[in-house]
Design brief:
- This protein is about 45% helix and about 10% strand.
- The chain is an alpha+beta fold.
- The strands form two sheets. A five-stranded antiparallel β-sheet has the order 1-2-4-5-3, with helices on both faces. A five-stranded antiparallel β-sheet has the order 6-7-9-10-8, sandwiched between helices.
- The longest helix is centred in the middle third of the chain and has 30 residues, at about 280-310.
Amino acid sequence: MSLFFSKDVKENTALLRQLLRVSASFDIVLRDVAVADLAAAIVFVDGFVKDETMSKMLQFFVNLQPEKVKKLKTPEDFASHFVPYTEVAVSDQPDEAVTAVLSGQLALLVDGYDKVILVDLRTYPVRGVSEPESDRVLRGSHDGFVETLVFNTALIRRHLRDARLTMEYRQIGSVSKTDVVMCYLDGVAPSKHVKTLRDKLEKITIPSLTMGQESLVECLFRKQQWYNPFPKVRYTERPDAAAAAVSEGRILIIVDGTPVVMILPSGIFDFVQDTNDYYFPPLVGSYLRLVRILVFGFTIFVTPVWFLLITNPDWIPSWLEFIRIKEPNTVPVIIQLLMVEVIIDAIRLASLNTPSALNNAFGVVGALILGEFAVTAGLFVAEVLLYMAAVAVATFTQPSFELGYAFKLSRMLFLVLTALFGVWGFIGGILLVLLVLATTQTALGTGYLYPVVPFDKVALRRLLVRRILHRNNALRK
C-alpha cells in the first residue's frame, strides 16, 4: 500500500486504518461521514476530542450545499471556507497525520482531495492550576503549572504581555513524540545561549522522554560527571517565577506532561533566591536571602565541624563546652551520624508511600524511632539526634530537592574523610567539593560559580541584596 494520500477517500481511509492500527485499539475511532454529497471520514482518539464541538461541525458539513463544495478545487480552499474552527491545518504526509491524530487532533478525509485536513479539537484531562506544594508563598499569585503544555504557555503569557516573548515548538522522541517548547524573550536572552540550546535540542535522538524533564536533562548533559551531585538545572512550578526568570534573560524549557519548568542557565548561587523574597519589602527580602545563605552553610558544615571538635576535645573553647557528649555510648559517633542520615532518608521515602490518612500516625512512629526510645536503648546519643534534627529542618529552607541531596552527600563525604584523616580529611573534603563546583558547567556553557567565578561585582550585589523592582533594567526596550 502506498504511503501517500490519493484522491480516493477509501484508499486514504484504509491507509490511516493500517497506520493507526484502528482494529487493535478501541479508543481510536474511524467513522465514515458525509460532507454535502461527498463521501468523507473522520479519525480521532476518543477522550481527546471535544464531542460537542465535533457534533456541531458534522452537522454543519451535512447541511453544506453540494454546488458550493464542488466549486472548491483544493483542500486548502475547503479548509478555509467550510471548516468552522480556528485551528485548522492541511497535510499531505500520512506520518504527520498519524502523529497529529495521536496528539489529539481530528483528521478529516474528503473524497477528491489528496490531503488530510487536521482540526485541533483536542482537550486534555487537566487538574486545576493550584499552587504547588513545594514552592508556596505568603503573598502573590497562588497558581501553578499543570501537565498540559498549552495551559503552561498561556500562564506565562499572562504574566508577560510582550511581543518579544517567543515560544519555539518541537517534538522530541521517535516513539513518544513529546511536545517541548523553548521559551525566551527575544533581545533580552543572549542570542548565543538561544542558539546553543536550540542546537542541542535539535540533536537529541532518543525513542522517548520516559521521565519527562529528567530524561531531557540527561540528553542535554550527555558528558555529565556521574559523581557530581549538584543540580545544573533550576526547576519551578510557579508561573510568576518562570516569567521573572524570562524577563532576566533566562530560557525556559517546557515539557508536555509535567508541571515542572526548567530554567537555563542556572548556577549554584541561583538557588539562594526564592519567590517569597520579591513579595516582601527590599529590606525584608534581603534579610530572608541572607538567612537562606547562612542556612546553606549550616546544613553542610554543622555536623562535620561538631564531629571534628568532639574528636579533638582540646580544641573546644570554654564557651562551647555544651557541645560535648554528656553520656557517651559504645557506638562510634561517626556510625551514629551516618545511620541517622540514612534513617532520615528512609523515613522520607516511607512518607511518600504513606496514605494521607496515616500521615499523622507515621509521624508519631518516626518521632519515637528517632527520639527517646533510640536514646534509651543506647543506639544514639542525644547530641547526635539534636544536630541531625537541626540539619533536617534546615534542609527545607530551600525548595530544590536536588540541591538538598547534593548538600547531604557533601556532608557525608566530609564526615567520612574527617573520621579517616582528621582535620586534613575535613580540609581535603572541602577542597574536593570546591574542585567539583569549579569544573561544573551549565547546559549553556556558563560558569557554575558565576558571579563569583568569573567575578562580577554588580551581579553579586544583585544576588545578595534584593533590589527595588522598578530599578531592574533587565527588560530593555
